[in-house]
């Protein structure tokens, strides 16, 4: 990357949380880089859910547009009763430990979806094959509830996907099984084993969880080596930002921010929340991979 000093300065603005078509975003990694540059940001991170499948394309785009990029992923984990999203930056994707982590999660999720389909198929006209037929060509995300919903629509049980999500596919449905995920402790261990940097995403997102991570739970993760907390995110309200900032300052953690951009998939606007370039520099200093 060029102009490194400027891009990594306190005045530079980085969006450190962005999704592309490699998970549930609607744009390609190339479009992410292009739009971030046009917007006047100084850098972005790609953080698709539970995958690094977009990294090759984003590396190409970073070069093409001469624009700084941090490679990352957003890993879904659990901690007691709380679903926790963890941003993993600049880890070695070829490290066995990470390969195993992603593979075993995918395997467990596939099995869970099959079990849900088996139960639904006893009462409704869908099959495993009719669910698999809903998975788009080349799609790299794991088959899950959206595909069951689409199969139910195709079978004429519902008029559209959201009706299916209000009914059989809802998390309160009798057919629902929770998504298998690694624990927060496992994610920290694996990402660090692969030389990466781990940050808890939107830990103050009240709407996502009945129970947020407590200060004590976060402090346990810090003792295990947690690198940072995402502070500037639309789902962290003012009080939560203050709580998380206080914990981060007390323990000298990296404080990050990002839009959680999904293209047209969510209202979040690219660059609506950012972190200064010095934060990108701190991530780069700890990660085993370089900035692009
Ligand atoms: Zn998230
Ligand atoms: Zn996200």
TrEMBL record:
Any Pfam family the entry gives: PHP
SMART domains assigned: POLIIIAc
InterPro entries in UniProt: PHP_dom (IPR004013), PHP_domain (IPR052018), Pol/His_phosphatase_N (IPR003141), Pol/histidinol_Pase-like (IPR016195)
Gene3D superfamilies: 1.10.150.650, Metal-dependent hydrolases
Recorded GO MF terms: 5'-3' DNA exonuclease activity; 5'-3' RNA exonuclease activity
Domain (Polymerase/histidinol phosphatase N-terminal): residue spans on this chain: 14-79
Spans through the membrane: none
Record's protein name: PHP domain-containing protein
The organism of origin for this protein: Bifidobacterium aquikefiricola
């Amino acid at each position: 990357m060029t102009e490194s000093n400027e891009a990594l300065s306190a005045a530079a603005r980085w969006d450190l949380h962005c999704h592309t078509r490699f998970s549930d975003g609607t744009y390609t990694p190339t479009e992410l880089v292009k739009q971030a540059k046009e917007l006047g940001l100084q850098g972005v991170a790609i953080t698709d859910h539970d995958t690094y499948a977009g990294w090759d394309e984003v590396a190409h785009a970073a070069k093409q547009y001469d624009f700084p990029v941090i490679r990352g992923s957003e890993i879904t984990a659990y901690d007691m009763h709380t679903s926790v999203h963890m941003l993993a930056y600049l880890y070695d994707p070829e490290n066995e430990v990470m390969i195993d982590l992603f593979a075993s999660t995918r395997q467990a999720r596939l099995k869970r979806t099959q079990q849900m389909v088996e139960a639904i198929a006893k009462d409704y006209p869908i099959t495993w094959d009719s669910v698999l037929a809903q998975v788009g060509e080349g799609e790299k995300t794991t088959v899950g509830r959206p595909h069951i919903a689409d199969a139910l629509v195709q079978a004429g049980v519902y008029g559209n996907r959201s009706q299916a999500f209000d009914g059989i596919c809802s998390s309160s449905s009798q057919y629902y099984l929770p998504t298998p995920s690694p624990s927060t402790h496992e994610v920290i261990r694996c990402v660090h084993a692969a030389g990466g940097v781990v940050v808890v995403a939107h830990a103050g997102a009240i709407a996502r969880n009945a129970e947020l991570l407590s200060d004590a739970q976060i402090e346990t993760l810090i003792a295990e080596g947690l690198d940072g907390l995402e502070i500037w995110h639309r789902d962290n309200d003012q009080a939560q930002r203050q709580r998380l900032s206080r914990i981060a300052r007390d323990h000298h953690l990296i404080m990050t921010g990002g839009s959680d951009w999904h293209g047209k998939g969510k209202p979040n606007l690219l660059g609506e929340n950012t972190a200064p370039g010095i934060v990108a520099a701190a991530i780069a200093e700890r990660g085993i991979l370089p900035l692009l």
